[in-house]
Design a protein that fits this description.
heterodimer, A: mainly alpha, 11 helices, 74% helix, B: 4 helices, 71% helix, 0% strand, elongated
Chain lengths: 278, 124
Amino acid sequence: MSALVFSSLLFFISILAGLLGAMTGLGGGVVIVPVLALLFKVDIRYAIGASLVSVIATSSGAAIAYVREGLSNIRIGMFLEVATTLGAVFGAYLTAKISGHWIAIIFGVVLLYSAFSSYRSKVDHLIPVNPNTLASKLKLTGTFTSFEGTNAYSAEDVPLGFGIMFGAGTLSGLLGIGSGAVKVLAMDQVMKLPFKVSTTTSNFMIGVTAAASAGIYLARGYINPTIALPVMLGVLCGSLLGTRVLVKARVSILKQLFALVVVVLGCEMIYSGITGRI
Amino acid sequence: MSVPTDHELELSVAGMLRFGVTAAAIVSAVGGFLYLRQPHLPVSHYKTFHAGSLDLRTISGIWHGAVHLDPRSLIQLGLVLLIATPIARVVFCVVGFARQRDRLYVAVSSIVLLVLLYSLSGGF
């Protein structure tokens, strides 16, 4: 395949991934690695390098839209970034220690989890809160305005949430993904923050988490310019486009279709990892 | 200077992020254009991993290549700019928290910044 054809194909498939990822909320980065590894037969280390770069681009590029909503909480985000960045550095070290087969298998499991978590109910925990001492000391509180009025919220079970965030960071550094689904799990399910606060704060955290492993990836040569560039530009264009059409399009059918694609890719990654094809 | 609210802080940060991403995309796209314009493009082999030369793996090497308009170095410079945007975001937060006289969060965001700088130095 000539370089021009290869770059163009990568670019267009990345636009599609970014578009579908943004429209369905599953994230574009999550399908980039399996598509590169399974379809384009690119070594998994180049694939996770390119994916990580595109994760940073979408997180930073979409930040302004999230900030305008005024729901993200920078203190909660920054506090949890201590855990995710340390986890990301640890994850980036792990990629050099474990084989590509294992990376593929873990990746497959994470894909299946992402598809599953997109179907979880999105009910807010608007229970009256009595901030626990740890949350108040660390200022992990805020107010959330919705149709029903303004509610105060406060983080619960901070140590467990912090621990899961370390895990989210490790996955991000190991697999080159944003691991937004795990971050939302920690904030929404464990720390009982309102769902909208969790998702917008998660988007802000994803870029910083990814940057914590990107430096190590760069030094190791995982970030190959000729693969990373078309992927990054494609995912960025696709996801910026996707956030614009989000409001207009009916996404439920699309979401089911994309979740199905993610499940198929997840199974294929696990199978390829076990049989040693990746 | 007045003390910024959290929301004002976030808005200035988000504006900076958008600027950073745009600059990064332009620099690397110019590199990509120069790369594809080369008369004899090598046929790509990405099936097996090679770490590649240090010129594309260290910031000084990338900078050296980019000022000589080497296409791959220019792409890589754009990607380094991109990696730098979330780091700049944390720097903004350190400054913003300092202006709010929130010592605890100056400390928290400084820890995050140190981890990021450690990674960017190649993790040695």
